[in-house]
Design goal:
The protein has one helix and four strands, in the order αββββ. The protein is α+β, with helices and mostly antiparallel strands. The protein has one domain (2-79): Roll (Nuclear Transport Factor 2, Chain: A). A hairpin with a 2-residue loop joins strand 1 and strand 2. The longest helix is centred in the first third of the chain and has 14 residues, at 2-15.
């Protein structure tokens, strides 16, 4: 449920110190006046147990405009495909 998902996010966020997260090659698709989707490449770097670490992959997000604010309704992040 929501509590388990929140705990997993919090554990991951605490694991990576000084994290820098960036999005690249963002492509937007407008579905309606209040729903959009985008896909992108992401990269991150930071310290895990004092050691430099980094990674990246592809992401897709769906955003919905509610009361004038854009909110993330769904997001999926995954690794690059194996070559």
């Amino acid at each position: 449920g929501k509590a388990a998902a929140r705990a997993a996010f919090e554990k991951t966020f605490k694991l990576i110190e000084n994290e820098v997260f960036s999005l690249h090659d963002i492509a937007w698709t407008v579905l309606t006046d209040d729903v959009v989707t985008c896909h992108y490449e992401f990269r991150w770097k930071g310290l895990i147990s004092g050691q430099e670490a980094s990674g990246g992959g592809r992401g897709t997000s769906i955003l919905r405009k509610v009361d004038g604010r854009w909110l993330i309704a769904h997001e999926h992040l995954g690794p690059y495909p194996r070559k």
